[in-house]
Amino acid sequence: MKIAFTGKGGSGKTTTTATIARLLAKKSKKVIALDCDANPNLGLSLGLGLEETDHLIAVRQALDAEEVEHAPTVPEILERFGTNGPDGVRVVVVSRIDNLNPGCP
């Protein structure tokens, strides 16, 4: 299952995402929460803490500044640009995915 939250700034997307991600994880579902926001604060809403959230943001900024290379595969994206949060939610801060080969949709 894939769920996406979109909408106007300040409409509660991050809060809703964090709540649903943790609820699903508590029900033993595998949850990967992608924060693609220009102001990525999903980590804070999920309970990562400021230091770990800032680390993920710094990694994304280094990618945007072309100081690090894009990850060539989805598993590498999840490893390189993510961390494990409370309740087993994998939190990943991304700006874009280049050359994704999703296989058969």
What does this protein structure show overall?
The protein has 105 residues and is an alpha+beta fold. The protein has one domain. It has a three-stranded mixed β-sheet. A hairpin with a 5-residue loop joins strand 2 and strand 3. The relative contact order is 0.18.
Quick synopsis:
The chain is of the alpha+beta class and 105 residues long. Helices cover 39% and strands 10% of the residues.
Poorly predicted regions: none
Number of strands: 3
- Give the strand order of the largest sheet, numbering strands 1, 2, ... along the chain: 1-3-2
> Helix count, per DSSP?
4
Gyration radius, in Å: 14 Å
Percent in strands: 5-15%
Q: Could you say which structural class the secondary elements and strand pairing correspond to?
A: alpha+beta
Give the tags.
alpha+beta, 3-stranded mixed β-sheet, 105 residues
SSE inventory with pairings:
Blueprint: H1 13-26, E1 32-35, H2 42-46, H3 50-64, H4 74-80, E2 82-84, E3 90-93
Parallel strand pairs: 1-3
Antiparallel strand pairs: 2-3
